[in-house]
Amino acid sequence: MNAIDINHDDELRDLYRELILDHARNPRHFHKIDDATHTAEGINPLCGDKLRLYAKVDGDVITEASFEGSGCAISVASASLMTDLVTGLSVHRALDCFAEVTGRLTDPEHQADHDFNVNLDKIRALDGVRDYPSRVKCATLAWHALNSAVKGQSQPVSTE
Amino acid sequence: MSQPQENQFSSISDCRRDFPALQQQVHEHPLAYLDSAASAQQPESVIETVARYQQRDHANVHRGVYTLSHRATEAYEGARDKIRSFINASNRKEVILTSGTTESINLVAQSYCRPRLQPGDEILITHMEHHANIVPWQLVCEQTGAVLVVAPINDAGELDIDAFDKLLSDRTRLVAVAHVSNALGTVNPVQDIIRRAQARDIPVLLDGAQGVPHMSVDVQALDCDFYAFSAHKMFGPTGTGVLFGKEALLEDMPPYQGGGDMILEVSFDGTTYNELPYKFEAGTPNISGVIGLGAAIDYLLSVGMDNVARHETQLLEYMMQQLGNIDGMRLIGTAANKASVQSFLVDDIHPHDLGTILDHQGVAIRTGHHCAMPVMDYFGVPGTARASVALYNNRDDIDQLVDAISKAQQIFS
Asked: How far is C-alpha B52 from the geometric centre of its chain's CA atoms?
C-alpha cells in the first residue's frame, strides 16, 4: 500500500514505516485508566504534542499502561508502542527501557547495557527519527512521561 | 521622501536571483522557501553590506574619535535615517532601535504602561495576537493590577470590529493590535481601529512584524502612536528591530534599560538621561544588524513596495486557490483582506508529519501553533501548517507545495 508508493524515497519510508502508521492511526491503549496509581503529562511545546500517561502499578509490576492526548504520528505511535511494551514489565525494567530507547534515539555513541534483555524490536521502528533532530522529541515524549509518572513527579514533563 | 527609482527590475521574478539561499537544493529538490513569515531570506546586498562593515568599518558607535568609529556611527545612524524615511516618521528621534518586535513591545509595556496603569485599568488586544503582543501586557497587568481585555474574532479570522468598539471603555489605557496576523494572514482595519481609539484619546500600538515586509507603511498617515517591527522579517538580519513612537509620548517615558549610551551624565547622586532616541538604547547596539536593516530597506525600495504588495497579493490568491482545490484541505484564515500567509490542515495529517514530508520535497513551511496558541484554541486545532509568501516566491513554489502535499496524502492514505 502507501509505504510501497514511496519506495524511491528511502529515508521517508524509514521514518513513516507501516508499523508507525498503523499505531498512529489505531493507537493501542488509548484511553484513561480511572484507577491509575501513576499518571503524568507530557508536553512538546514546539509541536503542540500533548499526552497524559496512565499506569497501574501493583507491587513492582506495571499491570496496565495507557495514554490519552493528541500529537503527530510519531508521538502517538511511540506512546502506543510503549504502552504495549511496558504492560507486564517491572517498574525497574520499564525504566531500563526508557534509558535504552532515549539513549538510542538521542546519543549516536549509545551502547546497550549488557544486562538489558527486553525485546525492543517493535520500538526499533522509531529509529528513523534519529535523522530528524526536531522529531526525536516527538518519539521520546511518552517515554519521558512514563519516567516521570513512575517516579511520582507531578510537574508536566516537557521535551523542550 | 527620497526613494530610489522604482521598477528597476524588468519583472519582480528577477528578485529571486538576488537571494543566495534560494539557489540551493534541499533533499535533491529546488528549495521552495515558504516560511518568510517566520524569517525571510536575505538578499546579496544585505549580506555584502554586513560583511563589508565587519571587514572594514567595525568599531563601537557614538564613542570613538577615530576613523572606524566615525564610519560605524555614520552607517548606523544612516540606517536610522533610512528607517525613518521608510515608515515616514516625522523625525529620527521617533525611531528607537531594539532587538526586535518583541523587545519593542516590552519597551512600551514597561516604560509607557507600567508607570501609568492603575488597578482596574484596561489594555485591549485581539484574539489573533502573536504571543509577543499578549505576554508583555499580561506581565504589566500582573505588575499593576490592570486587566487585559481581548476583542473577539470570527470564523474567517477577522476582528469583530463592533465588539472591539464596545470593549473600548473609559478604563482602556492602550490598544495593541497586529497590523497583519502572523497565524491567519488577516490584515486588520488598523485605520478604523486607530480612529475609534483616538476618539476616546486612547493610544494605539501596532505590531507591524508581518506588516512592514508586505506593504508600504506610513506611520504619519496611520497616525498610530507606536509601531513595532523586526528586521529579519523584511530581509534584514536577526536580532534587530524598531520601535516607532510619537515623540511626545517617548519624551514622557522613563528609560527602559539603564547602561551606557543612554545617559548624559552619571554620578552616584543621580544620572541625567540622554535625549531621544538614545534614551532607550542602553548598551552597545546590534550595529551590524541595524546596518543590514538599512541595506534591506534600500533593497525593498529598489523593488518598490507597491510592486511587492501587488506580486504577493496575486501569489497569495493563487496559493489559496491551489490549496483549496486539494481534497481534505481545511484553510484556516480566510479573511477578506489578507497578506502573505495561509494556514491549513490536510485530512487528519498532523502538521508536523506534513512538515517533515514537505521538507523531503524541498518545501519549507512552518508547522505548529505559530506563537499564537489562542488562535489555535479558537479554531480547535493543536496547530496548523502555514505557508507564507514573500517577494521572491513564485508560482513554481506553490506548485511544488501542492505536489508535496499530495505526496503526504499518499503516505497517510
From this structure: 26
